[in-house]
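FORM 12-B: Structure-to-Sequence Request
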């Protein structure tokens, strides 16, 4: 992994290979325009932040010798190997060898439509960060299984509400149990695919109800308590179709564009009260929803589901579908203390599928 921060490049002079010597670091992050952390050997606070992403960092003596020779900053230059090893031990002790501290331990979250797929990914990642949950889906059995799994793995409180989140009755039941959560994740099933000529007014109304008016109602219901507390996070799961339309998903394109417009204005109105609202735009992720869409493509084109899936994955630069864990991690970051300055953004998670500069 090379953690690079353009703004602190001068400080890195002489320390530029700081991380080359750590074999565990494999990924490349560019920090020039991301609100993450610098790994500049200039500032221990920054190192701590950067290293908190790395569960298994090791600075072995060879690496330490190398770093000592290269680092020219007055605080670090000429330090002994013992210094570097002690520093790495202190960092690991502070971090407990765990993932980055998102600063939301013991917060509470309502995660809608979360027994499976992307909603579940968000619930799991929040639970991993120490957040207590209310999760929801229509099928009680799957919902309870997911709740049990999350409780066992992450030792947080998980309440369940089996209800159709797109109905007013379902929304009221979920809100009754959730009370005044600190975090709201809006999600629901997506509308069916089709042709422009297939859809009647009733189809549009159903899509608007599920993917626009339901999240808006939940946002409206929970904003007052978040604003009163001076802290809140709202993340809406929308779709890459907001950025680039998917022709067969006309109902989804329309409903999600409506929600996106609402969020763009509302996020600015509530930001002064410590509440952020952002949207996560999934590209293709390996969930039941995508299995269903692959099946529809296979049927329409007379090919196998495997062929349809391989074709779809082949069109993604990363060469595969995303996972619910990757999606959940991005969601948890948006809900973290570190994302307080991200307001009204549409964050695309698509493996590079949409070919656009911005
Ligand atoms: N996966 C992708 O690649 C992708 C890409 C772009 C957009 N999206 C959108 O992201 C959202 C989530 O997709 P997914 O792939 O995670 O779907 P999924 O795997 O089918 O999971 C959907 C989850 O939501 C629950 N759910 C569905 N309708 C609900 C309702 N009316 N009330 C309460 N819970 C409900 C389901 O449980 P029950 O069935 O038991 O209710 C399940 O837990 C959808 O809107 C989808 O269109 C997904």
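FORM 12-B RESPONSE
SEQUENCE OUT:
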């Amino acid at each position: 992994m090379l953690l690079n921060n353009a703004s602190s490049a001068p400080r890195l002079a002489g320390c530029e290979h700081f991380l080359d010597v750590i074999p565990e670091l494999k990924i490349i992050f560019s920090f020039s325009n991301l609100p993450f952390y610098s790994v500049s050997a200039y500032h221990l606070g920054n190192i701590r932040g950067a290293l908190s992403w790395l569960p298994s960092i090791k600075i072995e003596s060879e690496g330490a010798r190398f770093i000592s020779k290269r680092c020219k900053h007055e605080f670090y230059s000429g330090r002994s190997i013992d210094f570097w090893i002690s520093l790495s031990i202190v960092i690991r002790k502070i971090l407990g060898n765990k993932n980055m501290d998102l600063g939301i331990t013991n917060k509470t979250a309502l995660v809608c439509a979360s027994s499976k797929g992307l909603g579940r990914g968000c619930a799991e990642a929040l639970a991993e960060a120490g957040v207590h949950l209310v999760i929801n889906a229509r099928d009680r059995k799957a919902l309870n299984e997911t709740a049990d799994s999350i409780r066992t793995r992450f030792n947080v409180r998980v309440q369940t509400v089996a209800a159709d989140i797109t109905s007013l009755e379902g929304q009221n039941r979920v809100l009754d149990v959730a009370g005044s959560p600190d975090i709201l994740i809006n999600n629901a099933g997506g509308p069916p695919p089709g042709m422009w000529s297939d859809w009647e007014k009733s189809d549009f109304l159903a899509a608007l109800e599920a993917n626009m008016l339901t999240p808006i109602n939940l946002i409206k219901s929970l904003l007052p308590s978040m604003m009163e507390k001076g802290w809140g996070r709202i993340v809406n799961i929308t779709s890459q179709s907001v950025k680039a339309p998917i022709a067969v998903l006309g109902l989804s394109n329309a409903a999600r564009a409506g929600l996106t417009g609402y969020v763009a204005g509302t996020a600015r109105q509530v930001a002064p009260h410590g509440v952020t609202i952002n949207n996560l735009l999934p590209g293709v992720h390996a969930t039941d929803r995508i299995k269903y869409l692959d099946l529809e493509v296979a049927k329409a084109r007379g090919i196998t589901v495997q062929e349809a899936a391989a074709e779809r994955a082949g069109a993604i630069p990363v060469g595969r579908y995303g996972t619910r864990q990757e999606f959940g991690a991005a969601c948890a970051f948006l809900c973290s203390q570190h994302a307080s300055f991200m307001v009204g953004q549409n964050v695309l998670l698509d493996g590079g599928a949409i070919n656009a500069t911005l």
